[in-house]
Amino acid sequence: MSEKKDILLPEPTLRRLPWYLAYVNMLQAQGVEYVSSTQISKEINVDSSQIAKDLSFLNIRGKTRIGYSVESLAEELSNFLGFQQEHSAVMIGVGSLGAALIRDSGLMQYGLRIVAGFDINKKIIGTEICGVRVYDISDLKEQQKVYKANIGILAVPVEHAQESADLLSEAGVRAIWNFTPFRIKVKDDVVIQNTSIYAHLAVMYNRINAKK
Amino acid sequence: MSEKKDILLPEPTLRRLPWYLAYVNMLQAQGVEYVSSTQISKEINVDSSQIAKDLSFLNIRGKTRIGYSVESLAEELSNFLGFQQEHSAVMIGVGSLGAALIRDSGLMQYGLRIVAGFDINKKIIGTEICGVRVYDISDLKEQQKVYKANIGILAVPVEHAQESADLLSEAGVRAIWNFTPFRIKVKDDVVIQNTSIYAHLAVMYNRINAKK
């Protein structure tokens, strides 16, 4: 019943599931065969009843006294989280961060394939990064007819964030992964995921200073 | 009174401040001189009383009817958030993501300078990426005497996350920026900042599926 994936899950659950996956992936690499929610709880620092609740969304049941099969749990989690499907994405802004994300093969392991890049910089338009072609941003709508990407990744300077989001929305993407710290607005049917790694720096700097 | 920076701020405030900074940076690029909290509120979708409260941590006062000077607000926010100081960091794991982060000059604009990389892969040990030298991970403690980095960035495979965190802790870093989805544990005096960009993919995929 893979339809379970279509249930809107609470964000805290969705953020914890990858922790469990990371842990069971490690166990699998170590050759461990079974794991209990108590054991996961100890390692991950999440209440074991919470873990059981989170895992109840999946099509997997642990065996009494033995726990979950590590292999099945890894497989189920990865599949449930959408990491085993391929989601295509276009990269808007192929500057330092955008190019870095295109080069990061880790994204592919988590089901994200960047199929094309778009920029306004004439020097990089027409070039390729790891086989991904960079186009003029004015060609986005036209190229989307070919690439049909579901996701648009925003890695442009702040002052171009909103107009780029509008272009993506018009080009028919279903989600925008926003790496800028700008609060973009789009129509309700487009999913927005904000990942401002630089904002995390602010939190970390403050915590360091406060511990002095 | 820059000592204000040493107050432990609530995380939600620390996450909102970079949004305001992104917005005033944009205004500054557009040549706008003043901005009110009402105006910021409309753009950013945060209550204006909340904005006034957040900004009260800073050494800046708005003028009645005119609002805040855009230039001063940008300067104050950037300084307050620690983006104008230089924080040195070592990169543990110079694979795809680690190398990408070293190449991302954006981090430097936000006050983070990566001074050295460490890995176990003999093929990349001894090489340089954008002027950043890659060392054998076993040389971390020794090289830290030279580099004295405050921050360790973790971009290793999940199964090496905890041992790498232990090495960083022993090498005397004050904070670990953890890009792995693994829940590392370190002693209390080390700050941990988790930034699992792949976990954000899981949230986005679920939201897309739920909207089908």
Task: Report on the architecture of this protein.
Chain A is α/β, with parallel strands linked by helices. Chain A folds into two domains: 71 residues, Arc Repressor Mutant, subunit A (Orthogonal Bundle); 114 residues, NAD(P)-binding Rossmann-like Domain (Rossmann fold, 3-Layer(aba) Sandwich), CATH 3.40.50. Chain A is 42% helix and 17% strand. Chain A contains nine helices and nine strands. Chain A has a seven-stranded mixed beta sheet with strand order 5-6-4-3-7-8-9. In chain A, strand 7, helix 8 and strand 8 form a beta-alpha-beta unit. In chain A, helix 1 runs antiparallel to helix 4. The longest helix of chain A has 19 residues. The termini of chain A are far apart. At the A-B interface, helix 1, helix 5 and helix 9 of A face helix 1, helix 5 and helix 9 of B.
Determine the CATH superfamily of the largest domain in chain A: NAD(P)-binding Rossmann-like Domain
- Here the CATH topology of the largest domain in chain A equals Rossmann fold
Order of helices and strands of chain A: HEHHEHEHHEEEHEHEEH
CA-atom Rg of chain A in angstroms: 20 Å
Quaternary form: homodimer
Question: Treating each run of at least 4 consecutive H or I residues as one helix, how many helices of chain A?
Answer: 9
Q: Return residue spans of chain A where pLDDT drops below 50 for at least 5 consecutive residues.
A: none
Number of strands of chain A: 9
Question: Which strand-content bin applies to the residues of chain A?
Answer: 15-25%
The biggest chain-chain interface is: A-B, 74 and 74 residues
The 3D shape of chain A can be described as globular
